[in-house]
Structure formats: structure tokens, C-alpha cells
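User: My instructor asked us to take a sequence, write out its structure as C-alpha cells, and then describe one feature of it. I'm not sure where to start. Here is the sequence I was given:
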Amino acid sequence: MTIRTARPDRSQQFRPRIHCLKKLEAIVVEMQDSKSGVKGSEQKLNVTTIPHVITGQDIIAWIVNKMKSTTEESQVFGTMLVAYGYIYPLQNHKKLVMCNDTSLYRFQTPYFWPTQKWSAEDSDYAIYLAKRNIRKKGMLEPYEQVHYNHLHEWLNHKWDFIVMQATEQYKAGKERKKPDRVVFDCQERAYWIVNRPPRRTHSAMDSSPERLIDPNTDEKFSFDQYRRMNIFYQQAIMRSKVKSSVSLGALVKYITTYKNHDPFLAPCPPSNPWQTDNDSYWNLNMRRVDVPTKMRVERWSFSLFELLSDLRGRDDFKIFLKKEFSGENLAFWEAAEELKLGSASSMTTKAETIFKTFLAPGAPRWINIDGRTMGLTVKGLDHPHRYVLEAAQTHVFLLMKKDTFFRYLKSPVYKDIQKKALNPEAHNFSPAQLEQNAQNRSPGIHPIILWQQEEEEKAKAAAASAPVDVKAMMSKIDRNK
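Assistant: Let's start with the prediction itself. The C-alpha cells for your sequence are:
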């Protein structure tokens, strides 16, 4: 690798994470302590003896003892150390995870740590790939070959210089002892697998676009900006405040209500798909399933917003409203949502349809709202926009929240779905089964296919709920006779 004395300014890119990286480095330094750290030993890799080698079991055991955490949490933390490049695997270098077995690892040299802020430039990567190409005699990894071809085309104007640098570094490496040469090759490969991972692979070093404005520079405000800031702070001081006890009580109530439904605080049966690579949880909680899970049905009772946000719960609520002959409020709320989230080209047509269906005098599904809200809504429909029905939609939502929603929770419809709801048993996968799940991971249903299915279901529901013209139906029967 090319050694530089002048480092590029990458402080803006690393500033948000520099504090976390410093904490990680402090722990890595403790792990390398000769007395209280992880004990290393010499291990044979192929036919070469590598010094200071540690196993995944020893690292995880040290983290468990140091942080007083569980084995699973320690393994996740160890994987983070590998992903950031502080520890690198010696055997399966493309798999940046910490395995709780006898897999071999080594500590990365501090020169390659992220806080050194070395820029992973294209020319350095091209020199590294050219050097590997010379050593492997053209037998690169598939993803490395793709990068090599791309860089050869991109840096063609200075490719002779890159090959010359790679050749010199290759000759200098051959003069080292074989164990030192193997260790340095592993260190350099670990650095590039973190900073230039294979395509379609997530990297812990990914960062957001660099800021155009340096946040450390003092911003100069004009007199008008100071005046507006002064007005804003005065209004903030005069604004009515909520007592701390009331706000804390509301927060405690919210946490108590939702804690069993938070996958970070409670398990999500049958298993967490992000940890087990098993998609049973997603299949059981698809948008529209015949029989939902108990936790999903329980969440509907939290609020009307939770019920309407779940399409399966909304379908169940429609069944209840249909039995009570009061489905026009929910139909109007859905139509207002479609207008709000729909395309601009169909806005005028949708607004006209909503007016004829729900708001016009003698409309087939006329909704009962107060005169002031009706007047504002009808006046706004002369020049329709996305939020022209906001006032009427809010009024209808509050009506359903105060009356219909509580009657639904006490109805046989909700109690029946509670009895039928599934309660899946938790999965207990062994490490071998988890590895097999990762290999047999399915891509799942494409979002476009899900969207097409939802559109077809919406069209069927709209056709079923459309008002029936009795006169037209009778005339059609007479013609058939």
C-alpha cells in the first residue's frame, strides 16, 4: 500500500462517528493487553505459522466477561468490530462476521484503523488489485476482477504508473519473511474488503454525502434574521406548556402499551427474520391475511389510528360498519386519503367524484358533518388540492374515534377475530439451522407485485361497495325477461 505523509481532510465524513470509533478503539486496545486481554497463540495457516492468532470463542468470551452481556449480544458486538476492520478473519475473509467457534482472527494494525482517515482512493485500490493480479497470475476473485476491469478503463491514462508501483511493492514484499508477508497481505486485504466491499454488499464505512457547509464555521446573521429569531423565541415563551408530570405520565403510558410490540424490547414470534433468516414472521403479518396473529389484533385496540393503518384491521372494521349500515364515514376517510396521496393529474376527477358521492345534497353515501366544515369543504372543492378535504376528514375521524371505534371493540366481530387469531410458537434454531437459513434465503415477493395485488383488491372492494341504482337494475331484469 502506498504510504502518504499528507492526509486528506476527511474530518467532515467521520465527524458524526468519531466518538463511537474512539470507544471501539479503546476496547480493542484493552483486548490486546498482554495481561488482561485476549490470549493469542501461533497457528498454522496452510503451511505458514502466523503469530498472535485469536479465535472467535476467545473474543466473545472476553466481551461477555468485560461487558457482562449475553453471548448473543457479545457476538453482535464482535461482528461490529470485524465490520469496522478492527479485527479481521484469516480464513473466510469475505464474511465479515464474528463466529462463536474456533474460526481464526487477528487484530488489525492501527495504521488501517478508520480514525486514521486514510482516503480509499481509486489509484491505491488499483495498485492493490494490480499487485494481487501479479501474485495470483490473473486469478482474482470475481468481484475483484470486475473492479480491476473498471479501474483499468477509468485510470487508463496512468495505468503504466500503477503497474510499475504494483511491481515494486510486489518485489519489496518478496524480500520479507514469509509469515510477515502473509500477515501484511491479510491486513491489506481486510482493509480493502471493508472499504471496497463486493457489489450489493453493505459496508459499515458507508457514509452520507459530505456537507457543503462546514458546521464548525461561525454563521453570520443579518438584522432581519435576528428580528425573526427574536419573534420566534417570544412566541415560544408565551406558548402554553404541559406539566412535566403530565408529559411523563403520557410517555410511561405509551411505553407500557407498546413495549410488548417493540422488537428491540420484546421477541417477535415466531422469530426475528433479521436474525434467523426465516420469513415466517413476515408471512404471518402480511398486509392482508385470512387470519392475523394475536399481537396484531391486540394492537388494533390501542387506537383508531392503529386500526386504520393496518389494512387487515381496516377490512375487519369495514365488516362491522357494514352490519351497522354506517360505512360511509370510513369510505369517505379512505377517499380523502387517496386524494391526498394520489397523482396530481387525477386530483380534479377524484374531488368531483367524492363530492357527488359523499357531500352533494341527496348523495348516495352522504356523510353527516357540521355546517361550517361542510361549507369550507364545498368552497375549497372549487379549486381542489391534496388537502382540500383535511377538515372534513379530521371531523369524520373524530366521530369514528369517539363512538364507532369503542362499539367495534365490544362487538362480536372483534371478539370473533380475537378467538381465531394465531399465536405462533417461538422458533429455536440451532447454529447449523441458522447457517442453512442464510444459504436458503428467499428474495420474497417483489413490492410491485404486492402493489398490483392491492390495486386489484381495491378495485374489487370499490365495485362491491358501489351504490346500486335500483331503477337501472329493474330495467335490466325486465329486458332479460
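For the description part of your assignment, you could build on this observation: Confidence is low (pLDDT under 50) at residues 1-14. Try explaining in your own words what that tells you about the chain.
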